[in-house]
Each structure stands twice: as C-alpha cells, then as structure tokens.
Amino acid sequence: MFDKILIANRGEIACRVMRTARRMGIRTVAVYSDADRDALHVQMADEAVNIGPPPSAESYLVIERIVRACRESGAGAVHPGYGFLSENPAFCEALEQAGIVFIGPEPQAMVRMGDKIASKQLAAGAGVNTIPGHAGVIADADQAVRVAAEVGYPVMLKASAGGGGKGMRVAWNEAECREGFERATSEAVASFGDGRILIEKYIQEPRHIEIQVMADGHGNCIYLNERECSIQRRNQKVIEEAPSPFVDETIRKAMGEQAVRLARAVEYRSAGTVEFIVDAGHNFYFLEMNTRLQVEHPVTEMTTGLDLVEMMIRVAAGEPLPIGQEEVRLDGWAIESRVYAEDPFRNFLPSTGRLVRYQPPAGEGVRVDTGVYEGGEVSIYYDPMIAKLVTHGRDRAEAMRRMQDALDAYYIEGVRHNISFLNAVISHPRFQQGRLTTNFIAEEYPDGFRAGDVPQVDPAKPVLVAAVIHRHYMDRAARLSGQLPGHERLVNDDWVVLIEGRSHPVRVLPEEGGYRLEYDGRHHRLESDWRPGQHLFHCVLDGEALCFQLQRHGLWYHLFHRGAESRALVLTPRAAELHALMPEKEAPDLSRFLLSPMPGLLVKVSVQPGQAVKAGEELAVVEAMKMENVLRAEQDAVVAAVRARPGDSLSVDQVIIEFE
Q1: What is the pTM of this model?
Q2: Which fold is adopted by the domain 593-659?
Q3: Which member of 288, 301, 336, 342 is catalytic?
Q4: Are strands 27-32 and 47-50 parallel, antiparallel or unpaired?
C-alpha cells in the first residue's frame, strides 16, 4: 500500500479523496494555484505544493508541474479526481516514466474510450447497443448538413473529445445544424484542444442512465448498479439518484452486463462509468465511457455501502476487488443535488465572491461533500461548484423528503446559489412521480426559473411564519430599556401580512412555548426557539416540523421554503390601509442597452454603430466557464454605440451595446 498520495485536483473532490486516504492511514499531498492558497483542500492535506498562477492552463493542467510536485513531496501515487488531467493519457505516461503510480485506468483504455467516434465503434464490436449515426469525423458545416439529412433530424452534434456538456448542440433543421457545428467546434477547441465533431440521431424523451463499473488487474470486473442522471441543464447533470425509478432488475442486469463487456474489451482497470441513453420503450444505447471517478459517485456509495475511492486506491496498489458481482447489494435510495454558485434567476449565470455565511445541513441520511468554508472565496477561475448534497433513505420517498429538508436548511450568503431551484425540482410533482427525461428542465422551466413562480404547497405557511417573525421583532423592540414612562411601546396582536399584493389578516397571540394564531377562520399553533438575527427559522407548525430560510431587507422578509420564495411585508391594519394607497415605483427602462448577463470575456461583437438589427440577430458572444453564450437582439433596433471591445473582461450588467 502507498505511504503518500498526491491529489492532482482541487475543491470538493480533492477533499473527498483526502478523507478516504486519511482513514486508510495514507498521507496526502495537495497541489494548489495562487488563487487556492487558502482553499479547504490545502488546509486538509498533510503537505501542499504550489503549482503556479490561477488559470488552470498554467497550474492544474500543467503535467510537468504535477510530476515535479510528486518528486518534491515523495508521493508514490496520484489520484486525479475528475476533470483537469483525470482522462489525459499523456499525464499517465509522464507519471509512469517518473515511477509514480496513477490511481486510475491504463492510458490505452483512456485513448480508446476518450474518443467518442472510436469508442462507439469499439462498443458496437463488443456487442453493446449503439445510437444510429455517422461513424466518422465531420469535416465542415456543409458535410454536417448532408450527414444530418441522412441520419434524420433532430440530430446531436458533439465533440469527439468532449464531456461536461461542452461542445454539444442539438439541431432540428439545417440552419441550426450549421450554427451548431460552428459553436460546438469552437467550444471543443477551447475546452479540449480538439475540434473534431460527430453526429448521431437525437433520441427524444431520453433518460440518461449510467452504470458504475469497477475492475482490477486480476481479471475481475463488476458493475455496481445504475445511476439516474436525467435531470440536466445544457447537458450538465444537476440531480442524480440511485437506483433509477425507471429500471427494473432485468434491465439493470442487461445494462450492467453490457457495461462489463465493454470494460473487458479495453482491458479496463479501476473505476469507470458507462453512460447509456434510454428511450421511453426501455431501449438503451451506449453514449460514452468516462474513464474516471464520476462527480455523482456518492449515490452509488450510499446504496452499496462501498467506498469507491478506497477501491480505486487498492486496485492501483495491485490488490484484487474485495467482492464479486453476486455480493453487490442495493440498499435503499440515494439522491444527489449539485449546489452551485450560480444565479438561477439570471439564466444560471456563474456567481463569484466570498462566502459571508456558509451553513451546510446535517442529520440522519445527509452527506455533504464540499470544498469550501465560511469566509472562503468562490473563484472566477474554476468550476463554481460549492458542494454535493446527498441524502439516503429506505426508499425514494424518504430520500426525497430528506433532500427537501436538507435544502431548506442549507444556508449560503455572499454569492448567488441554486438551492431554491434544486428544491423546486425535487418538490415538482413530475419529479416526485419519477417521470424524468433529459428535457425535464427545458420543458418545466421554458422561460427560466423564478422562485416566486413556484407555488407553496400550503400558502398559509409563509403567512403564519412571517407574522410570527415580525411579532418576535416587535416584542423585542418593546423590551428596549430607556423608554419614556407612560409612552412605552405597545405591541398589537392583529397584523396584516402582504404577499404578492394580497392582504392576509392574522392575529398573533403569544403563549407559553410559542404562539397561537388565528388566520382565515382557523386556529394554529406554532412553536419555535428562533432568535432575531438567525437565518434559519426552525419551527413546529400544527405538529409539522418546518425550516424556512430568512433574509430581511429593510421592512421586507424574504422567506424560502421548498424552492418557493415569499416576499412578505407585515403591517398594522391601519398601516396596511395606507400602504394600499401608495403608488408603486416603476423599474428603470433598460431596453436601450445590451447588458452582460454574466461576468466573462467578450469574445465577439457582431454589430457596428448605425447598423439596423432584427429580433433574434446575434449581437455579441460572451465566454464564461469555457462556455460560449450568444447574446441576441430581443427586438428590432438600431445600434447607437458599442461600449465594449472583444477581449474585455465584463462584469455583470456592464453595458456592451447601446441602441437608439
């Protein structure tokens, strides 16, 4: 067994690997860029080595610097995590030449599975179901259009060397095929240095279901059941679960056996994932094989009781697998939500900054894999993942309920985050029923996500909670010392809660251990030990335990629960009467400007001053997190001035173009 391993990664996955290594008695070495000097993975490691400037291309992706860090620290093996160099054969070969063990598959397996065109051909030869499509590389947009017509629209254009949703486009007609080819090629070159594109039939109403495999160097290979990964946005996974609500034992066995057959065909060793696309008729087709540990591996660990990182380390050390296929178990249900620093109310744009408050949830069946801490920073240089929140239950219903409760109790302040969106998806009737496809988010939120658009399961709950919170603040104000005798502040029992323009009269009566409330002709009992200043309002309302996230902005209370936001103003009955007479302030008209919707790099400006543009016409291209975002005209207009130039680093809401 290894005495010391280096983790060639950062963030939550580096911390995750370190936890297992520490339990195994193995010392760990972290690598870090200048931007990650104070990162959590650096603090957790036994040793840490600086590998360069913040950009990944100058630090985490530089093979020579990782190898040098191994030599300096004396690490005998490297765990790559996921992303960065985890699927780079040249990295494996460089480590081998330096006498350092790579904790992962052999380079030849990476090469054969890393090329989507070659892997599809190999899969077909191994007897694995494959999607109909073109077997070769597409040379240009003209060939893309011809091939798409032969395969039949809709088609998927995707980078041969791609992954993570980058370099992928769906085309429904010739125009979209041409533009999709250009965008997919550009993203593929920027992300992978390889612009090769392939085309295959786009499966409608698809599910994304993958099989976890594990193989050793002694000829043993097993599958560890499936993961449902259909909840995706722009081809990137958002929520995963194991097992799949769509898969029965017969399909599980068939998919698992094909995955093992493919792994054996490339003499695979270590952890790997074979991804399938499954249609409504339970037909499944090979998508790709990821030759690394997946982001969503915790749901497999929670349902099998196995530590995949430990198995990878032991396999790399030459040990055989500890179990056979017949010993693989399926215990309960697990769900993972990816918590990102992104703004779901602004089309999921990345958010960066310092975590002013960071309070992850805890409890039975709750696991949080994170790489951040309160006071730490979410950098502009890397993936904006904050954590992976995983819950486990005896069945899917319990796992979902625990996920809802955990998301309600997950408090983050300082950066925008997607917790409300995640809770809204988990609480959605269609998700609850297990009716999932990869189009779920696009179909259920076609115009984007707004927390106020998500209805409260019980609209009375935020009304009652807001009334009690306000009464609590008023009672505290009435107890302030130094009040003029005879003019002490008196607190009313009657209040009006205003939410979305509607008035809700509520009577709030303090009593021992809580409050008695009268609302809409009914009596309620609320108990809570909440204190002003706390951001989580835990209570028991009519016997039901609840948790609301609370933010106070001036006189307004912003309450978040189950993905829904309630913006409440609590007034006395007389103040509510007067408030109804107040004019509403109109928002400023920004329609004359094209604003940058995200922090990023302005790659291209497609118009000039004086040019007339039509609705839908391309105006500019902004790159953020290696994804190109095309900004289009919302209406016909004439360009008055261009306020930014290609190459400029843009901030959120920075003016790019002004219209007449």
Answers
A1: 0.85
A2: OB fold (Dihydrolipoamide Acetyltransferase, E2P) (2.40.50)
A3: 288
A4: parallel
